[in-house]
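Suppose a classmate hands you a notebook page containing two proteins, each written out with its sequence and a corresponding row of structure tokens. How would you begin to make sense of it? This section walks through that situation. The first entry is reproduced here exactly as it would appear on such a page.
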Amino acid sequence: TVTRSRFEDMCKDLFDRLRGPCEQALRDAKLSPKDIQEVVMVGGSIRIPKVQDIAKDIFQTQELDRSINPDEVVAIGAAIQGAVLQGDVKDVLLLDVTPLSLGVETLGGVMTKLIQSNTTIPTSKKETFSTAADNQTSVTIHVMQGEREFAADNRSLGRFDLTGIGSAPRGLPQIEVEFAIDANGILNVSATDKATSTKKEIRITGSSGLSKEEVARMRQEAEQNAAADKTRRELIDLRNQGEALAYSTKKSLEEHGGKISQESRGKVESALSNLEDKLKGEDKAAIQAAMKNLNDAAMELGKAVYEASSAGQKPGEGADAGKPAGGKEDVIDAEFEVNDQK
């Protein structure tokens, strides 16, 4: 004969594993136990008194919902969801969510997330990106899934090329990327060059084809590496900002360098060279200092650019002249790597 205490002792490691998924679900939903109205138990094992006690303790409740046969809960839920999708049931709302974040790889190997984990589906999200080099005529859209900061550490879902982008300085083309997930969890990703209306897309049917164990492992890895990833991401973001500053300063120097003194030009060129050198290293403080030094050195250059811009305006035009009525659309601070340069 096996007593209850003996049985509970034998199953202790299994009982201990019950807490993790429940507590993770609360964290993902950004809820506390007091926000939970009912706890519906599933499966025959919930008849074990110890399991019931653990559930009551986790969700801080005195009673569990016993109105549904635990052996039939999954089948009943599937039937209700089928009726909802079919349109036969109108007064029940069942929400499915994305298990992991979805995004694209951008400059520096970073994963830029468009749809965050635990977003209810169906859903869609658009972001506008740009190019990373002058005269870049195509980009690669690399679709990723996961919670890490860098693409290499996440799951690759697919990739496609958007070609036919008009030759233009870096940062000028506007490429709209849209992620759309339907009620069946099928992901459609499209990329459109706003200037030419050129569009390419990909359909991904396995975006949620991970087991619970794989999802849990990916989340755990993200938590364990959060601090290191954050440090690396800050460095990459700072480098991207520094490279953008160096590019814009160099362009302004080429166009307006003759309008400033030779001494000021020399200071700008020296500060620019120093920043480009610091961007090769990993010292964030040194990069920040070099960026500040360049900004300070380029003040006279900035004045020349401003005066040239003001002189080009017609009488009566203000700072917002030439902008669309609705204002200029924001372009996300991320760029695609060069795929093909002609």
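The notebook's second entry, a different protein, reads as follows.
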Amino acid sequence: MLLVGIASVPAHAEDFRAQQWHLDAMGAEEIWQLSTGKGVTVAVIDTGVEKQNPDLRGQVLKGKDFATDNPGDEYTDYNGHGTGMAGLIAGTGERDGGNGAFGLAPGAKILPVRVSGGDSGTKSQAAADEEFNRVVPDAIRYAVDSGAKVINISMAVGAGSSKLTESVKYALDKGALVFAGVGNDAEKGNRQMYPAATPGVVGVGAVDNKGMHVPMSQHGDQVDIVAPGKDMVHACGGGTGMCTTVGTSDATALASAAAALLWSKHPDWTNNQVLKVMLNTVSKPAGGEKRSDFLGYGAIRPLRTLKTPGDPGPADVRPIDDLTEVATATPSAPETLPSADPGPVETTTVAPAPAPQAAAEEGGDTGLWIGLGIGAAVLLGVGVAVPVLRSRRG
């Protein structure tokens, strides 16, 4: 089993919030005037969550430990990774008198669901895959039955199973959303990973602070959206309790947090409506496709979802129809995204291998940082109705 984030390094002891570029890029201060994620529970299916981390005190609910082969319980993070995901989602910044690191949805609560496998290297890949497919489906069902609306899985294995697929469908039928990292092995074979490739799961890729696709972030039919995932400063487990990381794990946590923000503001919406609005408001790249294998349908813009969500659509229609039908993928040529604009959809001509786009002057959540170095698509503009989108998963 792989954690879809690279091993962390301690963050420098200073004003941690000032180092969180992703929050500035997405307009966090304005977001928190509209929603903090209050009232929404996000399940973190991972290596455990340390509830005593200074930036997570009071944020972590009673969960469950499925990693019985590891000492401790769901509050014992045997790797540090799960605490990091919780920090990116719901960190409060309370460390050192308010100089700590924030999550994108600091009002949300974390349901810790500890599973084994994060101590990679102790098992063969086949054994890790088998263990994941035995335990994680039960963890998903537990999370849903415990009230989680959003399920974050920043872990990946090389094989899925019918049990995993059925548990995801159970979560969707119960009204939840499941987000998973697509993996960090793009430069090492780029094989499809699960649960991101499982029907019904929202697969998340990573971009950096200049808006470029992170080279390790895997690409393919399983990519639905992208989010920041490089040079990420956040609360984490062990050591100093603060880390700097890179990977699709981090991007997944931010996508989960974005869903929590939107659901908190619109608690009457269904999972289908929340996801549709997230897709409606993604950063809009150039090109002629609705999605690309590198960007999916686009990059999350949580401020836009809150300010101008558009029509959430029918409550019972899933915007990504990957549960019953599979469409053919169309490979993307190397391209980049143009700067996003709050106005109508526009077309931009893209030259091969261009430089990253500059940041927008108007600030917060403009999407300028979401330039993609490889793969681009014409995406839906703000407030444009989204038809049922066809998944390209096999």
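A careful reader of the second entry would note: The chain has a mean pLDDT of 80.
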